[in-house]
Amino acid sequence: MSRRQPFALLGLLLLVSMAAGWAAAPPPAAHVDVFYFHRTARCPTCLDMEAYTAEAADHFSAEREAGRIHFRAVNLDDENDRHYEQDYALEFSAVVLSRRVNSQEAAWTNLPDVWAFVGDKSNFLAYVETEISKQLEQLPKRRP
Q1: Per-residue confidence at 4, pLDDT binned at 50, 70, 90?
Q2: Which residues, in sequence order, are bridge partners of residue 119?
Q3: What is the pLDDT of residue 29?
Q4: What is the pLDDT of residue 141?
Q5: 34 CB-near residues (< 8 Å, 6+ apart)
Q6: H helix count then E strand count, the chain
Q7: Using CB atoms within 10 A of its CB, is residue 132 exposed (0-12), middle (13-18) or buried (19+)?
Q8: pLDDT in tens, 89-124
Q9: Whole-angstrom distance, CA of residue 72 vs CA of residue 89
Q10: From CA 103, how far away is CA 81, in angstroms rounded?
């Protein structure tokens, strides 16, 4: 074995252990799920609501990149997602925010006023962004 081989092997082991640490890093313990619930058949208003909700969630890019906010459109007609109707007492398309801590739902809120603002994009975005901010403020603080 040459004098360099032990150092090369040590460097390789260090890289492998670092990569394993990155891959094994747990997801953030606390985050907000932003759900837009819909049916298979959708009208232009429902499509707008989904687009506006996604845009509002995208406003929080730093939180999204940190894994502290997620957006998901959910079709309630899909068999695996039907449970949400009971979980959140849904009767029609809706925006729901779910605050999760340590993989458990800590609280959720339905945003019924999205229907009042769907014809007014700027007020829709302001409303949803305000409600998302409130939920993010309720999350446990991140450790440095």
Answers
A1: low
A2: none
A3: 80
A4: 78
A5: 53, 56, 57, 69, 70, 71, 72, 95, 97, 128, 132
A6: 6, 4
A7: buried
A8: 998 899 999 999 988 999 999 999 999 999 999 999
A9: 18
A10: 18
Q: CB of 53 within 8 A of CB of 114?
A: yes
Tokens of 54: 């996604």
CA dihedral 37, 38, 43, 49 (to 10 degrees): 10
Residues 6+ apart with CB under 8 A from 28: 66, 67, 68, 142
- Banded pLDDT at 24 (limits 50, 70, 90): very low
Residue 136 sits at the vertex; the CA angle it makes with 134 and 141, to the nearest 5 degrees, is: 125
Token pair recorded at residue 36? 């837009």
Per the CB < 8 A criterion, the answer to whether 71 and 58 are in contact is yes
Alpha carbon distance, N-terminus to C-terminus of the chain: 43
Q: What is the pLDDT of residue 2?
A: 55
3-state secondary structure of 3: coil
